[in-house]
Structure formats: C-alpha cells, structure tokens
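Reply to dn_fold:

You asked what the input looked like. This is it:
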Amino acid sequence: MAFHPKVICLWELDAEPIVKKHITSLYTLLPTMRGAKPDLLSQALKEMAQRYTRQQLDKRIIWFGFIMLRATTMSDEDKQIVEEELRMQYRYDELIDTAFTVTVRLCIRQEEFHYI
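and this is what came back:
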C-alpha cells in the first residue's frame, strides 16, 4: 500500500464555502484561509459551541486562538475583534492559563530562563 499525501495550502482556500457547507472539522483552521473575517469566524465559533461538548470546544478554542494569532491572512484589527469575542464568549484567557500543554511549556521556559 502506498501513501500519496496531497499538500493543501490553507491560505489559498476560501473560508466562506467551508462555513456555508458546515464543515466543522475545518473550523479550527479557518483563520488561515482567505476571507476569514470576524463575522464569518463568529458564526463558525457559534456552530462549534453548538456541536461540541465543553471539553471538546475548549480544546478547539485554544487551537483556534493560537492559529489565528499566527495567521498572516487576517489583519491585526480583525484578529483583535475575534480575540475579544474569544475572551468574552469562550473564556479564552482562562483556557490558556489552565491548558496543560501551555502550562508545561511555560514551566520549561522558566527553567531555561532560570539557568541562563
């Protein structure tokens, strides 16, 4: 059996059809796509909140936020609008503060800094 992966450049995809077709499995990646505007992302976040359990949603919100902050397809202003929604509606700051992987990485960084 041969495996022939296909590279998909997310920044070349349009976000709107993904949301119109309700392909929720790709919603976490929406900020990397063309046309990822605050209103569209807000709609996607609401759909995610309806579909997933709290624990499932929390994991996706963390990744959504990280991906959005690193995305080059969105303006800083649009990122601020969506980040505010993440903070107000989805407890983004609390999720980041308590996320295990984030906490571990911060501890490792502090240890590295301590030894410098």
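The radius of gyration is 16 Å.
Hope that clears it up.
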